[in-house]
Amino acid sequence: MSDVISVRVSRELKRKAEELGINFRDVIEKALDDAIREKEMEETREIATKIKELMKDVSEEDWVRDIRESREER
């Protein structure tokens, strides 16, 4: 299934693209895919930064102790 997207571009840009045989759909789909991927990566980096900030006060010893306690509970 697909949706229709309408985009206005200058006549000159459209003409040049047509002369060069550029497939508008392929270009737009790739650009959207790249933009989505970049936005998702940016959001992931922001979440990782927030987690890192929250975790800065947790020492390695605390991690080891908590993991051992968790394993012993099983």
- Overall outline: rod-shaped
Stretches with pLDDT under 50, minimum 5 residues: none
How far apart are the first and last residues' alpha carbons, in Å? Answer: 48 Å
Proportion of helical residues: over 70%
Order of helices and strands: HHH
Radius of gyration: 24 Å
Mean pLDDT figure: 93
Note the total helix count. Answer: 3
Strand content: under 5%
Number of domains: 1
Q: Main beta sheet: strand number and arrangement? A: none
Structural class comes to mainly alpha
Number of strands: 0
Keywords: Coiled coil, Toxin-antitoxin system
Protein name: DUF4145 domain-containing protein
InterPro entries: Post-segregation_anti-tox_CcdA
Coiled coil: 25-61
Topology:
Layout: H1 11-19, H2 24-55, H3 60-73
Care to describe what's here?
The chain has 74 residues and is mainly α. The protein has one domain (11-73). It contains three helices and no strands. The chain has helices spanning 11-19, 24-55, 60-73. The radius of gyration is 24 Å and the shape is rod-shaped. It comes from Metallosphaera hakonensis JCM 8857 = DSM 7519. Residues 25-61 form a coiled coil. Pfam families: CcdA (PF07362). This is DUF4145 domain-containing protein. Keywords: Coiled coil, Toxin-antitoxin system.
Short description:
The protein is mainly alpha-helical and 74 residues long. It contains three helices and no strands.
